[in-house]
Amino acid sequence: MDLISDLLRISRARCVLSGGISGSGAWAARSPAPGRIKILGVVRGSYWFRLDSEPADLRVDAGEVLVVDGRTSFDLGSDLHDSPVHLRETDPVRPIDRDADHVCVTAHIELFEAADDFLRDAIPPVLHLHGRAREATTAAWVLEELFDEFAHERAGRTAASAQLTQLLLVQVLRAWVAAADELPSGWVRAAGDDRLGPALQLMHADVGRDWHISELAAACAMSRSSFAHRFTTTAGVPPLTYLFRWRMRLAERALDDGSSSITELATQLGYRSESAFSVAFKRWSGIAPSRFRQRNPQSDLS
């Protein structure tokens, strides 16, 4: 399994360079809850960051990056006791002062609407890529390149900045997964569990198979009861519930992009009939597959 690639693929995450923040002397800015994942990377200087839902302030130095889930308002600046400038998502992009003491580039993540919670629920409210992390060297280089793309109107700027920002997000996620002492219960934690890895690889490789607990437990060299207990404790749900949810995520993506007819999709996901799949999907999403597909005019297969 490639955990991070799966996260980004199913969420259809697309990184967009938003602009930046720069300042000298004492300054502070306050942002309302963005409503989407935000990336903030320090190119020069340092700043303090405070998330309303977290008790401690974070110091973020040059070459370091924060990723916030966008559900909570936050403050940042060189001095959080200073009177803050109030930022809004609708504000025009502010020009970056290249000679300022503190320079930060910002980006946001656009997600496939139906899978918005998939990535945001998988990560904590704030991720901090520290300068001592293995991934920090690459991140620092990416930040300099992003700053250069933002500062110059060169051909291909949009495409280049999107790829660079995506790489920056991957570095933060890699560092988080590698450094976490104990990830919260969920599929990210399960994917990082070596004992459960063989079962997850089987389910992801053949998602349409009628898997049985005994088969998955045997692949992990565990008893049925021990496997079921470990999986449920680690993933937060029983194995077959995990499989059902993964199938539904794949179904949402396929229905949205029109890559298969509903009948073909039902077969691919292991359902014996289109009606059985439709019942399962409606239980998951609240609407029938055909109605879900109709929300995207580009999807015209039935």
From TrEMBL:
Pfam family, one: HTH_18
Record's keyword terms, sorted: DNA-binding, Transcription, Transcription regulation
UniProt-listed SUPFAM superfamilies: Homeodomain-like
SMART domains reported in the protein's UniProt record: HTH_ARAC
Presence of keyword Cell membrane: no
Gene3D superfamilies: Homeodomain-like (1.10.10.60)
Domain HTH araC/xylS-type: residue ranges: 197-295
PANTHER family: ARAC FAMILY TRANSCRIPTIONAL REGULATOR (PTHR46796:SF7), HTH-TYPE TRANSCRIPTIONAL ACTIVATOR RHAS-RELATED (PTHR46796)
Protein's recorded name: AraC family transcriptional regulator
Source organism of this protein record: Rhodococcus sovatensis
